[in-house]
Amino acid sequence: MPSSKRQAVKWRLSSRAWLIAGVYALVSILWIYFSDLLLFALFPDPEIFGRVSVYKGFAFVVVTSLLLLMVLLRAFGAVEGAFSALQSSERRLSSSRGQLSAVINSAMDAIVTVDLTGRVRSFNSAAERMFGTDAKEVLGRPIGRLLPVGIDQFSAARFETVGIRNDGDSFPVEAAVSEVHSRQGVFYTAIFRDISERLSQETALRELNETLEKKVIDRTRELEVAAVRAQAADRLKSAFLATMSHELRTPLNSIIGFTGIVLQGLAGPLNEEQTKQLGMVRGSARHLLDLINDVLDLSKIEAGELQVKPEPFSIRESLDRVIASVHPQIEKKALQFSNEISADVTDMVGDRRRIEQIVLNLLSNAIKFTDQGSISLDAAVTDDQLVIRIADTGIGIRPGDLKGLFQPFNQIDTGLTREHDGTGLGLAICRRLTSLLGGQIDVSSEWQKGSTFSISLPLVFRG
Amino acid sequence: MGLRVQLIEDNEQNRYLLTFLLERSGHLVSAANDGLAGIKLAQQMNPDVILLDIQLPTMHGYDVAKGLRQIPALAHTPIIAVTSYAMPGDREKALAAGCDNYIEKPIDPETFVSEVERIVQELRK
Lengths: 463, 125
Prior knowledge:
heterodimer, A: alpha+beta, Beta-Lactamase, five-stranded mixed sheet, 10 helices, B: alpha/beta, Rossmann fold, 5 helices, 5 strands, globular
């Protein structure tokens, strides 16, 4: 309670006491004076007056005694009330102090109070365990024995330092400090926590990170080396393909050229047998060239070297051109040929050369495997897709052979009679090219009845 | 019509083949077996058309084409690349290097000469 308020209370109580005493004196004096006047008027006889006066005096004493009793009883009651309130508040205080000290003592963390001079004022059991010492060993002694820091360090709310155990061991410790102002002065209450584990975890984590980083760097380096090697291998492969392509074709160029010249009679006349045999030479040379071209095409596709070059072109003209180019073969085998190219098949965007190659390949196959009957080519546009269907009435394909049809080197009947020329690569190339061009190729066939190959390609393909 | 043809081709058989076909049709052929000789000969001959093999030893066909184009007298002479399209992009590279057109190898002896004549005719227009 502030002293000014206490002063006011004291003043009020003492002034009330003075007032009560004053009123009592005044009332008593007036009573004595006026009651005597009244009695003297009633009883002028001095003897009666004297006796009545004595009775009046007794009555006055009795009445005032009763009044005094009442006042005293009230005052004692108030004192007694204040006393018991004091007692209960003392009880509460001591119990909460006990609770606090129990909490402090049972706390998992070390709690230490120091005063401004750095002397230890409280030291809980966790602190005893942490520093390996008894509270009585350190109470009243400087905290510096336990922590090599000055008291000014405690003004920071949080700090990390090294704790020193009684046996001289040291350990990393973290302190959380709160400043306490009390009647006895200013204290610092610090909660200490042993952070050895946390620090070792942090160290382990840091080391792990460093190891990981190192691993990543190592792996990256390995990958870079591998990538360089792969690039070198890739360049080597491309160069090899280019060289093979050139070296294999150059001699064939002159073989086919000179055979053509001699067959045309440009180098002088030939007899029938010479013409026939030279024709065979040219046929074989052309077949060899097809083989080389197919093998190289497939190698380039497999190596990712074959790039498609989309451009706008007239697919109608392309189809006409391909049909015209196989016409001699159709006539030679006396096959019937029909085509139905719908009016909306006009222009498209794609790789003209490659699309012609696919159609030519399929048409050549149809002719190759059909000895009698007919071949047809239909083309139409559905849903922005060009669909070309090439059907024949040839030998067809056995159901069991359909599955591996588009695999390289998979010509049916290969190795038995070799009745049909070819590399066995044509359909494999067709399928790979179609998918490079964003389309697909399908086949349906009936053994001994014929086959239908259909390719669908996007009308506009940008690669 | 008797064109003066400068042939640059390293393969002996192919050189003979093309020379034979062209001369048989009444054209005049001067043949070189590598790029440098070709450029030198072309400067002397001032040909009507240059047939240029792309896969040449020592100096690549593209470089030969670029070299030919830097000679003022040959800046507008038709150059036809005779190439086997070994790798993707060869055709574009040939055109970018200064060639006007290209004929694919292996050549067809029946149509080769007329193809050359047609290209020269078109370029003259």
